[in-house]
Design goal:
The protein is an alpha/beta fold and 322 residues long. It has eleven helices and twelve strands. It has one domain: Aldolase class I (TIM Barrel, Alpha-Beta Barrel). Helices cover 39% and strands 17% of the residues. The longest helix is centred in the middle third of the chain and has 18 residues. Pfam families: ALAD.
């Protein structure tokens, strides 16, 4: 049928009918909030490039966790800023590491909050790269050991899920094996499977104090020009035991999210990263956009593309509208 028999505006002429036929609905169940934990007590250090976000000491993180949980946030992704760093990221594997401390405190004080730990070495190494450096580059296989031990240490602390973000080949298998050997069969892995060497991570470098001290990360993170390669990365992670796969960043890679979801029919996470967040905040501060409407549209678009989980710094602001 064509016009005038078919008039698609009939299904748009009231809010009720628009709600009835809406294809994609964003809910609080879709969202995860990233948080940054640092040493000290009473520390709430605002991140200048990410308004509304701070580096928080464990006590302040617990306060934030309670606030978020009361608002309806069900899950948070934890990043750590350690008191000291080393060459290999060994500090991230310690029983009393900064994220391990945070996990124990949150589990005690906010037991209903689902805790996910980012697994990587960039915040913990003196050079800011994601693994052990040999001859000026990250040594893939040496790094796997640190990542696996970090994952086990965090599982022992009580984390609900681990999320390796390093992009080393074989790290999902190494982590799955280590978790299973230590009895953590039910700890899921959310793998940063298609993580691009993106310019959108800029503000995160300030937040996590993880800027590389030399070179870049192009030898292990993906070329933004590539799409087919992302499917190969995702497939390998699934074969190695990933329970959830992730695409990062999100907005410039909605085609990748769509392809991953349709190819593998796996739970897919999308990370709405710091640079994407900062651009919205900057435009809103100038009065150029309606921030709330923009955020709803962006996050709904990610879900429409196929994201089951959306990791976003907007979560704490948008959650009560859902």
């Amino acid at each position: 049928m064509t016009f005038p028999v078919t008039r698609l505006r009939r299904l748009r002429n009231s809010e009720v009918i628009r709600n009835l036929v809406r294809e994609t609905t964003l809910t609080r169940n879709d969202l995860m909030m990233p948080l940054f934990v640092c040493p000290g007590k009473g520390v709430d250090n605002p991140i200048s490039s990410m308004p509304g976000n701070s580096q928080l000491s464990v006590d302040k993180l617990v306060e934030k966790g309670k606030e978020l949980y009361d608002k309806g946030v069900q899950s948070v992704l934890l990043f750590g800023i350690p008191e000291t760093k080393d060459e290999t990221g060994e500090v991230a594997c310690q029983h009393n590491g900064i994220v391990q401390q945070a996990v124990r405190a949150l589990k005690k004080e906010v037991p209903g909050l689902h805790l996910v730990a980012d697994i990587c070495n960039c915040e913990y190494t003196t050079h800011g790269h994601c693994g052990t450096i040999v001859d000026g580059d990250v040594h893939n296989d040496m790094t796997l050991d640190t990542l696996a031990r970090q994952s086990v240490s965090l599982a022992e602390a009580g984390v609900d899920m681990v999320a390796p973000s390093d992009m080393m080949d074989g790290r999902v298998q190494a982590i799955r094996t280590a978790l299973d050997q230590n009895g953590f069969f039910n700890t899921p892995i959310m793998a940063y499977s298609a993580k691009y060497a993106s310019a959108f991570y800029g503000p995160f470098r300030e937040a996590a104090e993880s800027a590389p001290q030399f070179g870049d990360r192009k030898t292990y993170q993906m070329d933004p020009a590539n799409g087919d390669e992302a499917l190969r990365e995702v497939e390998l992670d699934i074969e190695e035991g990933a329970d959830i796969v992730m695409v990062k960043p999100a907005l410039n890679y909605m085609d990748i999210i769509f392809r991953v979801k349709n190819t593998f029919n796996m739970p897919v996470a999308a990370y709405n990263v710091s640079g994407e967040f900062a651009m919205v905040k900057a435009a809103a501060a100038k009065g150029w956009i309606d921030e709330k409407r923009i955020v709803h549209e962006l996050l709904t678009g990610l879900k429409r593309a196929g994201a089951d989980i959306i990791i976003s710094y907007h979560t704490q602001e948008i959650i009560q509208d859902l």
